[in-house]
Amino acid sequence: MALSDSDSAESWRDAPVHEVLLLVGGLVMLLALLYAMEFPQAGSFLSPPLVAVAGGLLLWPVHKNAAARALLLSGGVLLLIWAIVRTSTILIPFVAVYLLAYLLHPIVTRLDRKHRIPRWVSSMAVTMLVVGLFITTIVIIAPNIVEQIDRLSRQSLGALEALRDWLATSPLVAELEEAGVIERETLIRELTGFVQQQTRRLPSAAEEVLASVGSVLGIVTVLALIPVILFYTLKDYPSIRDSLVGLFPTANGRRDYIVEAGGIVGNYLRGQLIISLISGANVAVALALFRVPFWLLIGLLVGVMNFVPRLGPIVGMVLGGCIGLLFGGWMDAVIILVVILAQQLLEQSVLTPKILSYQMGLHPVLIVFALLAFGTFMGIFGLLIAVPATAILVTIYRAWREELTLELNEYGQMRK
To answer: Has residue 14 got a pLDDT over 70?
Structure first.
């Protein structure tokens, strides 16, 4: 039963002086932890781990107090976030491998249960398949993408130079200058400086990449370790998953909400990945058959933007049409729009019902709101994770609501 305000006040008055001092000291250490995280100083003795340890030792004698537990929990969460940020470079490969294992786990499980193939054998086969697809992409597709990006960059600079010449000779610009709307010389000077800056940057980019031998060796080392990590993660995925699920708090004594949220996100990511690959491949092949310039880049753009539901296809269509109109012609732009529209029709009528044969349980208005909110705070990355993150939050809220309902029912029965 919850304490009233008067009971809380009396408990503070009755608390020993040393306990109050320890709580105040713990609050000061929490503020010191925030300061050390926000303003790190090189060579400083006070680092966040040291401040956190000192605060934990200070609060441990009164750890049974509710306020002390709140301070310890707050400091632990802050220290965990700080450690994740500081070790993000190391954690990214492991997080990427776990996500990949999360998506490929059903294949390994199916081979193990249905075809009686030992899990380590199926894990090895799936790992070799992933490595083979990655090498194929790097050897065959990556050079074409780099070539088209380089060509698009150079043609963009050429278009800017043509725009500069048009500004210098256009009667319309002269009339606008006479009316005092723009200053042609200032506009031309800024555009010329931008073109010169980008022209110098293009050849130097490749030289900088080649000069970063240490970075290249580091990337190669990480790429060499990823297949090994992926194999062991796939082989021992059930135990790793259970260990991670055990870190989450329980709702009514159970962690069903984590399993439910994981199922929703897993189905969404697997289905959306397959649909995006098919969409990008269909658009790229169709545009290549019509000899549309930058067909591979447009197909890649459509595939990536397809991860963002509802808004992504519209953005891909607009950007693809602009590329075709600026660097091809109006006929190329029309072909791009028709191909993307046909792909969207195929996706909505065939791919989505067949592949995404599940219900996200999210209202369309909630999805649009989530896209806008996550996009505002986290940019493109937020758009990509908006739907699965919202599904997780909704699932956690439902579990918390069910637990709250149970507690209220029990409280009502106790009052009777």
So the answer is: no
Looking at the structure, tell me whether residues 105 and 213 fall in a common domain: yes
What residues make up the domain containing 182?
A: 89-237
**Rounded (5°) CA angle 73-78-84:** 125
Q: What are 286's two structure tokens?
A: 């169709």
Q: Quick check: 230 and 128 in contact, CB under 8 A?
A: no
Please say which residue of 61, 86, 111 terminates a domain.
86
Write the burial class of residue 233 (CB in 10 Å: 0-12 exposed, 13-18 middle, 19+ buried).
buried
Lowest model confidence (mean pLDDT) among 88-102, 188-202, 295-309, 327-341: 188-202
Amino acid making up residue 392: I
What is residue 132's predicted lDDT score, i.e. its pLDDT?
A: 86
Contact residues for 126 (Cβ-Cβ < 8 A; gap 6+): 104, 107, 108, 234
Distance CA 50, CA 57 (A): 11
Decide: helix, strand or coil at residue 254: strand
Domain boundary pick from 28, 55, 86:
86
Residue type, 289: L
Place of tokens 């210098």: 168
Q: Is 330 helix (H, G, I), strand (E, B) or coil?
A: helix
- Note the pTM of the prediction, 2 decimals: 0.61
**Nearest C-alpha neighbor of 295 from the set 341, 343, 339, 345:** 339
* Nearest in space to 155 (alpha carbons), one of 289, 288, 285, 294: 294
**Residue 191 maps to a domain:** yes
Instruction: Say if residue 220's pLDDT is above 70.
Output: no
> What is the sign, positive or negative, of the torsion defined by CA atoms of 264, 269, 274, 279?
positive
Which stretches does DSSP call E strand in 21-75?
none
Tell me the pLDDT band of 211, cut-offs 50, 70 and 90.
very low
Same domain? 161 vs 131: yes
Indicate if 98 and 201 belong to the same structural domain.
yes
